[in-house]
Amino acid sequence: MPALPHGGVGARIAYYRSVVRPKMTQKQLADAACVALGTIRKIERGERGVTDATLEAVAEALGVDPTRLLADRGPAHTRVHDALPALSAAIAAYDIPEDGPIRPLNELRAAVDEAVTWRLAAQYTRIVRKLPDLLTELARAYHEAATPERREMTQLLVSAYRSADAVAFKFGARDLSARLVELMRWVSPEAHDPLLSASVAYVRTETFFAARAHAAGLRALEQALDAAPAPDTVPLIAARGALHMRAAVVAGRARNASAAALHLDEARTLADRVPEDVYCGTAFGPDSVRIHEVSVAVSVGDEHVGRALDVAGEWKPPTDLPAERRSSFYIELARAQLWSGLADDAFESLKVARRIAPQHTREHPWVREDAATLRRLKRADSETLTNFAEWCAAT
Fold first, then answer.
1. Which CATH superfamily is domain 9-70 in?
2. What is the pLDDT of residues 26-45, one digit of tens each?
3. Labelling 20: which of 117, 275, 303, 348 has CA 20 to 30 A away?
């Protein structure tokens, strides 16, 4: 395998373009990163510097963390990990935020919507750069809001906490994630919004995943389902359906196949009543249910794994689904393929997941485990597999 060059960021971009992503031309990289071709050429020749925005766009197009382009060696993902303490500091003072300016409500709404877009696209570096200051500003706005604005401020704060939690949970900061979940649970009742309550119940399951307390997580979701209003509107149908999808996965992790099947059937029934992929805190619709069917099959394991292969043989997630969810489909499919002795197919699925959502794929523990297994099996091209395993820090 060629040695990683030491000639600066441009040389590293050229290296990853031509070796880690074979046959990727400068024009293809420019198009994927939405950067001018002339800019890519000058950067690779060392004739111009790279802004943070350009570096992130190029890194995302190449499927690598920006820190890989900035340094020859050292721990991966430093930028995100180094930013996590700032998130902790922002939420530590949730009830006593420091004084400062507060933007108009419409501007705060736009900033939170942008963070949600980044979460769905698994662009975690952007989230950690912007969220600490935004969370502090939202806390100020929440505590100073007049009664008419208080409900929306509550919704914005929960949504921002959730975007921050996506980073904390994916990057292994479990204590920080749990604190963010508790803050969502603390503030959400003030909105008197059943959709928001359902969304928070959905996210709360992360704490049970982290603790491997799957039976308790299933009880919590079933309580949330009992408390949810009748599904008589599209948003309420989507919210209830999302809870059933989540409950199916949690039941699968608990190896409770009958409960998993029951919740999956409920989710399918509800999905038939709404348009494709409604978004109410999380995407819901027939496509999302199919993805969760794969997840459930892999979670339950044993003779159920074949169902994941059957689903994938008939269908692939459409590109308009959130990137994080689509990459999860291929990560879980890869595990089913590996367990079924389809090692080459499993590696192809992992590569698809990386193309869709690089940061999400790299941080997923199953990816590291499966890449390490594949490397031991030596069933794929050794150089390509070695590159992939090093990229995701598989051991």
1. lambda repressor-like DNA-binding domains (1.10.260.40)
2. 998 998 888 999 999 999 88
3. 117
